[in-house]
C-alpha cells in the first residue's frame, strides 16, 4: 500500500533509498531506488545495520518513516537520521518532524501518501502535481515473470486458466483471526465446476494452507516478485484481507478479497476493480463466495 510513495518520489525526481526487510529488495527491484538497507525487526541489530549502511552512504541525512511503531522511530533516531513520521504515543520525541495524524478515517494508502507529501514540503522539496492514483502498481521485472512462467510450465498450468487462492493470513486483528474458514469447500466447488485451483503459500504458511484447502494444487514457494507475477497470470485470485490482496491489486489481477474482522474502508485493496465480500464482524457465506467466483469467471470468458 506504500507503492504510491515510491511513485511520488520518482515523479518528483527525488533520489531515495529503502530500509526494509530483506524480502522487499527483490520485490521492489523494478523501482529506481538508489540503495537498500536490510533490517530484520530486532532493535539493536537494526540500529547497527542502519549505522553501517549510512557509513557507506553518507549522503542520506533525512528519513520518511511509514510505520507508526516506536521501534522504527528509535532505530532511525539512534542512527542519526532526521525523520518525518506520524505523531504517536511515546515516539514524537524521537522524530525530528512529528506530523499530526489525519482526523478523519482514511485508507492506509491515503494515509501514507499524505505523509510522504507532507515530508517533501517539510524538507523544502516540491512534491509536484503527482496525485494518488486510483490503483497501486508494482513494476514487475523480467526475472519476476520468468520465475512465474517456470512454475506454471512445471505444473502444466496455462496463463489465465487457473484460479489462485491464498487461504492463510498471518497475525491477528484486535485478537481475531483474519482467515475465512471455508476455502476447502470453495476449492472443491470450483474443481467440480471444472476449474484448476492452485495456491502458493510461503514456507511458514504451507502447513496451514494444506489444512485450509487440502485438495488445491500446492505450488512451490516463490519470492514475492515471482508470486506477484503468478497472481497476474491467474484467471482469478481469491484471498483473505492480507498482503496477497494488495499484491494482486498491484498487478491488476482479477480478485475477490474476503473480509470478516477488518474494515474494508481502511484496508481493502487499493484498486477500483477488486470485489470485496464481507465486512467487519460479518464473514460472507460459502455460497456467496462460490457464486461470486463463478459469476466473475463467466464474465471473463464472455
TrEMBL record:
<keyword id="KW-0808">Transferase</keyword>
<dbReference type="GO" id="GO:0008713">
    <property type="term" value="F:ADP-heptose-lipopolysaccharide heptosyltransferase activity"/>
</dbReference>
<dbReference type="InterPro" id="IPR002201">
    <property type="entry name" value="Glyco_trans_9"/>
</dbReference>
<protein>
    <submittedName>
        <fullName>Heptosyltransferase-2</fullName>
    </submittedName>
</protein>
<keyword id="KW-0328">Glycosyltransferase</keyword>
<dbReference type="Pfam" id="PF01075">
    <property type="entry name" value="Glyco_transf_9"/>
</dbReference>
<dbReference type="InterPro" id="IPR051199">
    <property type="entry name" value="LPS_LOS_Heptosyltrfase"/>
</dbReference>
<dbReference type="GO" id="GO:0009244">
    <property type="term" value="P:lipopolysaccharide core region biosynthetic process"/>
</dbReference>
<dbReference type="GO" id="GO:0005829">
    <property type="term" value="C:cytosol"/>
</dbReference>
